[in-house]
Design brief:
Chain A: Keywords: ATP-binding, Hydrolase, Ligase, Nucleotide-binding. Chain A: GO terms for molecular function: ATP binding; hydrolase activity; urea carboxylase activity. Chain A: It holds the Pfam family CT_C_D. Chain A: Residues 10-231 form the Carboxyltransferase domain. The complex is a heterotrimer of chains A (299), B (326) and C (78). By secondary structure, chain A is an alpha+beta fold. Chain A contains 8 helices and 12 strands. Chain A has a 7-stranded mixed barrel with strand order 5-10-8-9-7-6-11, surrounded by 4 helices. In chain A, strands 1-2-4-3 form a 4-stranded antiparallel β-sheet, covered by helices on one side. In chain A, strand 8 (194-198) and strand 9 (201-204) form a beta hairpin. Chain B folds into 2 domains: 3-174, no CATH class; 180-313, Cyclophilin (Beta Barrel), CATH 2.40.100.10. Chain B has 4 helices and 20 strands. The two termini of chain B are 25 Å apart. Chain C is an all-beta fold and 78 residues long. Chain C has a single domain, classed as Beta Barrel (OB fold (Dihydrolipoamide Acetyltransferase, E2P)). The N and C termini of chain C lie close together (7 Å). Classes of the chains: A alpha+beta (299), B alpha+beta (326), C mainly beta (78). Chains A and B meet through strand 1, strand 2, strand 3 and strand 4 of A and strand 15, strand 18, strand 19 and helix 4 of B.
Amino acid sequence: MTDKIQLPPARYEYGGDEFVFVELDQAMSLEANFAGMAVTNALREEAIDGVVDICPSNASYMVQVDPDRIDPRDLVTELRRLEASVGTLPEDYVLKTRVVDVPVLFNDPWSHETLMRFRDRHQDPEATDLEYAARINGFDGMQGVIDAMTSAPWIVTMLGFVPGLPFCYQLVPRERQIQVPKYVRPRTDTPERTFGFGGAFAVVYPVRGAGGYQMFGMAPAPVFDLSQSLPDFAEDISFPKANDVLRYRAIDMAEFEATRAEVEAGTFRYRIREAEFEPAALLADPDAVNRELLEVLYR
Amino acid sequence: MNRLLVRAGGLYTTVQDTGRFGHYHMGMPPSGAMDIYSAVVANMLVGNADDAAVLEATYVGPKLEFTDDRLLAVTGADAPVTLNDEPVEPWTAVRVRPGDVLAFAMIRAGCRVYVAVSGGIDVPVYLDSRSTYTLTGMGGHEGRKLVDDETLQLAADGQATGSGGAVVPENLRPDLDCPAELRTVVGLCSYRLTEDALASFLGTEWKVTKDADRVGYRLRGGKLDFTEREQPFGAGSDPANVVDLGYPIGSIQVPGGDEPIVLLNDAVTGGGYATIGTVISVDRDRIAQAKTGESVRFRSVDLDTALAARRDRRERIEQVRQQLGR
Amino acid sequence: MATIKAAMPGVFYRRPAPEKPAYVDDGDAISAGQTIALIEVMKTFNEVKADESGTVAAFLVEDGDEVDVGQDIVRLEG
């Protein structure tokens, strides 16, 4: 982030007659994500008739339209105009968001049991997913990669795949990002609440199902609650929101079980704090901004 | 009264309307009838609103017993339909009475039949829709497919007094000929394929595999090469990988280069595989009627053609409405 | 000649799991409603049931073959 990333010209594509897809960069960067945030926020405020949904993604975004109400080409004209006027966040732009503490039991028995069943689909059948990630990222052991993932917070850069799944990108310079490939062949099973990792993204799987991300741990608290029985889900069945800042915190089995009991009792609440930061300041000095965000969270 | 008895659920029968919109950004696909034309026309035949909830049955139809006076219509795939073991016509409004039993024989062409009942299937509205999304178990009838020996609620205002008999003319019924031609807007991340691979994609007759359901259709029949590149940061090391992005409904991805997947109404909304184009919205109706073992082809079209096809479908729906005097 | 037909397309299996014996063999007597095979489609394994009683003369489809709707899979004696 010391070398500011220059984005290429945005690429506008039609996903058939009902979608417009805009690629801001082929590579992931906070700059690309913030540019998408700027345009999609501006588009949302315009409340254009015929825009069915606005879907920010990691380094791209997608707009679903009703072509009976708006010609997708007219939307692209408007998106180009927005890109020219707000396509990069102004230097003094302040992002209002929430910082959330998300406990994770790394190297847990449940995702371990699952990953052992699918070793034949993995790059390194002899190691666990965490051991493999530690090795290819140059750490001595898995504690090193756990420390790296839990020392700095992450920003939710996309929701999707299945309802409520947050794609999270760590707020550290590119050279400090952890990267792992996805499984050679996707698994047919992943436990609910698995903490997964693929490319440069951390996720929590909302529901049990297929998946291709490496499996590192298990969150005791849900990110998706169809029954809406937990207070944090009163408004929405899905907890994470785009731009949320999540701090993954390593916990032990005792805390995992205690948190599970709270979830079962319907009393669990995420630790959430309102926060704001300047993306420009974050890009200039990520460690300083991260310190402030964590201080707000645990104050 | 107001109940529909499910004597047999069939293979995979769900309650669907025209879909649940506005939640794609959080990862929730629209669901809804896969073959929209057949679902809307079935509703018209029985005098329902176009977006009333119907039953969508795949391959093996359900067996249903009526408890009151209703109008019934069956559209979509070509399967022999019986009422109390007597043949009845599809694409036709049929008057049913308490105790009447609707059943299906083996399908002859197509894949999905639609059953509309006057008043509509009265499941609770969830996030503005009655459509079923089975992955998370939401919407429709308890978020799942129908099982044997259960009961569905019908809307109280759908009691029929008149007789049936309204018919959709042959020329306004969909074409189920094989192979299905799927008009496709090439693009998105199609730059990941070599020129030869893109030509081969469009020239190949692809076979629908057994993994073809409401989430998507997995196809087989060729091998497509990706252009070589140094993978961009965050994408992952496989040449089919991109930085995770949104997948349009109807979009086509080619994990591994040899098994294209067309995403449909219960799509995964995003992920890390390069998308190479999108089947136009109208032709989702067509792929919905392509069954495992059949072939499909993709034909490259521009956005104008896609929009014209959509207008054409709307005009056909209005023609049906006029013919039926609804 | 009586046959049992596939009610759905998919992949045909004669045994409930790879290490298990076949549901029925040639020459076996079967009764109506008895499971005689599986067809895998849409990520589920669906039981194929005999619609009438009889004796299996021959299976017309190999284990693991693709079948189409309406295809004859078993010929019954008589």
